[in-house]
Each structure stands twice: as C-alpha cells, then as structure tokens.
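Structure in, sequence out. Go:
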C-alpha cells in the first residue's frame, strides 16, 4: 500500500519530552501501513538512541537514522526529507505531539484540494500560536488575505514532490529563523496552500526546563540578517503593493517592534539592548515604507514610526507613557460609562492620536512620526464603540465617547470589555461606580506590567516542579 505521509522528527537529547509524541503516533487514526515515522537522531547522548532503536524495532512503519551531532534542526530535517517515502511530509519537533486524527485528516484534505502545503490547526501548550488563522478552514488560501504568514514554524504538511520540484530544503548552518526561510519560500511558490481548522492537529509546547531551541539567547546582528533575507525573499516573489505590505507586517509585529517591547529585550543591559534597537530601527527605516506601517495594527504602526526616528531612550520613554494610558469603565443606567486617562488627565472624545503623541514625543521627531502615520494620526483615541467579551453574550455598545449603550442589552458590574482605540486594544472590567483619581492610573498600570515581567522571569528560573504551580499545562495523553 502507498505510504501517504512521512512524519519527520529531528531528535537531540529530548529526555522525557519525547514520550507524548511517541504515544500520539501510536494513537493515529490513519492505518499504520499508510504512514511512516522517520526519526533523525542528531548524536543524542542521553540514551535516546537506544530508546528509539527499541521503539522502532516494534513498529514496521518507523525507523531511526543515527548521525553525528550537527547542532541545529535544519540539516536533520533535510536528511529526513531524503529518506521519506510518503506522498506528503509532516514535520514534528521532538517535544511536540500530534492530534489523534491529524495525519488522516490532513492527508485527506490535501488530496481533496491538490495542496502543496497544508497548515493544520495548532494548539499552544504554555506558548502562543496563531489563532486568527484557524478560525475557519481555507482550501485555497490567498497571500495577504488569509494570514498564513502568521504561522512560520515548519510544523506543517508538505507535498514531497513539490519540495523536490522546486528544490526546497532547510538552510543547514546554525542560524535562527531558518524555518521562516523554508516556510515563506513554500508559501510563495506553492500552487495551493490550504488551512485546515476543523480538528486540533498539532500541539506546540513550551518545555518545563526552558530548553526549546527557539528560547535560546541570540546575537541580534545575525538574527536580523536572516530577517532581511526573509524580506528579500518576499520582495522577490510578491509585487509591491498591499498584499506584500500585509504579508511583511508579520515580521514588523513580531520580530521587530514586538521584540523591542518584550521582556527578553527590555530587561537587557543598556548596551546590549542598544544593539537590538539599532538593528530594528535600521530595518524599519530601510525596509518598511510608511505605507507599510499604515497597513498594520495601531500599536505596531505607532511603535514602528517612533523607532524610525527616535533614539532608544525616547522610544522606551514614549512607549511606556502610551501604554500607561488607562481605561476605566463603570455602570451608567444600564449602559457603560467610559474614560481614558493619560497621566491623570481625562482624554476628551475628540482627542486624536496626533494630540496624544505630541504630548509624549520631543518636538524634533513628532512631525516625522505623524507624517509616517498619515491619516491614522487623525484618528480619535476615544472610540465610539466598545465590545463586551464576557459576563453576558458578546455585545457591541455604541456611544458618544462618554456613555455607551446597546439596544437590547444591559451592562453589569463585572462585565469584561474590549476597547478598540487608535492606541491599540485595551481591556478592562466594568465597575459598579465611577472611580476617581487617587494615585494615578498610569502608576497602577506600570506596577502591573512590572509584576508580569517579574513573574515571567521568576517562573523561567524556578525548578520545573515548582514552576508547575504557576502554569496550567494540559497533560499529554
């Protein structure tokens, strides 16, 4: 019988983290004669080699390739591609696992749609994964429309003949984001990319010991050199225009502005943080036109515009000030009263983004920043609608910037609401009555943010048995 799919797994010293994957392979609904597993053991020294030999000896559809340590997963994945016999290849990391019906569902979906790439629904286990991408299945995804760029990890199903036809393989040197180069090339050169969202297919995990390859510290200069390689690749295959700008906004959001705002960079010593900032600022200036900034979310656009023109100290000073703008909400005769507070000052309904930025940026950069933001700078900061997201059915309340009402719904204390603002989304809880001053909402927000950062770093340093107290982790079956 023809092998439908080869599961390729690069392996190096996984220890106990390999077991959930092995169990998930044994639970697959696809008959064993229809799939194979190819483990590429990259010189493990923890007993994994013997464990895999014994496991594969009991299963005709599994085998292991042993090799000297190469040190990075790209080369072992290429070895797996060369050994694979299936019509499709599904890449899996050693510390992740598959949903029980994943291989059967994904191969059937790929056959039905003639897919070169199938992005199966991912579930994050103590880590973030794309969610908007998997709101629905998309048989033929469109670049710049269906957000496939949100998923850049290799944990997808690829048609083996497609990889061979275009000669696509992983870079084999030791560099981060090698998967971005592979996945982006596949997306942009495939005839059909499909998104399958009906079943949980791939469980992407964060290890208790913090030793996921993606969590290791890194040098920003070579890291951002690879980001530029990805940008080059996109520019080579997508014509200039809205689709390209939407596609490239993913790196602006995550690896550039998002990285500057993350504790991983914010908490670095000043000199090392400066190297990160210089690389991000340079790429945003040189590789992203102002029109690309306007194609992304408000918070990313504002951060990028500031990074294009401001020194590091001013970027963080202004970014902190903008994030301290607080939202307060309270019951108001069945509706919701709302105010945005900036350093103790209530923002009026007519306050624009430009007015807020002028209050927090130095005169030397404020006009260039506003020019980069274009019409977005004229957007009002206080919204005319807010969304109730908990406490009752999801409901949109509209208003004049001060009081918001819905025709067939009543607000109550304890409801959770989301406020979509030109400063980016904010969430808060409706209180029974209006709160007043007394201590400054910005200080409260700052303390909460500092506490979250402290907890993030504390949890990473704790022994794994203690760390479980802070995390709710789905147990692998």
């Amino acid at each position: 019988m023809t092998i439908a799919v080869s599961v390729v797994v690069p392996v190096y010293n996984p220890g106990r983290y390999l077991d959930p994957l092995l169990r998930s392979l044994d639970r697959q609904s696809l008959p064993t004669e229809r799939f194979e597993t190819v483990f590429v053991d990259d010189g493990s020294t923890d007993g994994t080699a013997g464990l895999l030999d014994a496991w594969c000896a009991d299963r005709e559809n599994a085998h292991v390739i042993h090799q000297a340590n190469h040190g990075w997963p790209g080369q072992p994945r290429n070895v797996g591609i060369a050994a694979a016999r299936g019509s499709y290849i599904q890449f899996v990391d050693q510390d992740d696992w598959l949903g029980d019906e994943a291989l059967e569902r994904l191969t059937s979906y790929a056959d039905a749609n003639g897919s070169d790439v199938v992005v199966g629904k991912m579930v994050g286990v103590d880590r973030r994964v794309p969610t908007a991408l998997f709101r629905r299945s998309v048989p033929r995804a469109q670049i710049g429309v269906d957000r496939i760029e949100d998923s850049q990890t290799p944990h997808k199903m690829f048609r083996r003949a497609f990889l061979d036809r275009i000669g696509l393989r992983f870079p084999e040197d030791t560099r981060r984001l090698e998967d971005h180069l592979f996945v982006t090339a596949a997306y942009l050169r495939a005839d059909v990319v499909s998104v399958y969202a009906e079943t949980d297919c791939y469980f992407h995990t964060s290890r208790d010991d913090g030793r996921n390859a993606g969590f290791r510290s890194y040098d920003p200069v070579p890291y951002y050199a690879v980001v530029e390689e990805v940008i080059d690749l996109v520019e080579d295959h997508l014509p200039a225009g809205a689709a390209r700008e939407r596609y490239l906004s993913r790196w602006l959001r995550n690896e550039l502005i998002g990285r500057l705002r993350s504790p991983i960079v914010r908490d670095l010593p000043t000199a090392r943080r400066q190297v990160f900032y210089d690389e991000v600022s340079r790429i945003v200036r040189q590789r992203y036109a102002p029109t690309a900034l306007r194609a992304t979310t408000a918070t990313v656009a504002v951060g990028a515009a500031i990074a294009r023109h401001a020194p590091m100290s001013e970027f963080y000073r202004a970014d902190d000030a903008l994030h301290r703008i607080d939202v307060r909400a309270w019951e108001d005769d069945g509706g919701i009263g709302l105010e945005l507070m900036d350093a103790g000052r209530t923002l009026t309904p007519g306050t624009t983004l430009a007015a807020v930025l002028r209050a927090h940026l130095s005169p030397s950069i404020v006009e260039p920043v506003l020019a980069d933001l274009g019409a977005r700078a004229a957007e009002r900061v206080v919204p005319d609608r807010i969304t109730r997201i908990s406490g009752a059915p999801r409901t949109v309340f509209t208003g004049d910037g001060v009081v918001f009402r819905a025709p067939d719904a009543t607000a109550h204390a304890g409801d959770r609401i989301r406020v979509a603002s030109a400063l980016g989304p904010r969430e808060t809880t409706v209180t029974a009555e209006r709160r007043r001053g007394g201590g400054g909402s910005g200080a409260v927000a700052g303390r909460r943010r500092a506490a979250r950062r402290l907890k993030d770093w504390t949890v990473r340093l704790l022994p794994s048995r203690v760390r479980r107290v802070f995390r709710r982790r789905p147990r692998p079956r």
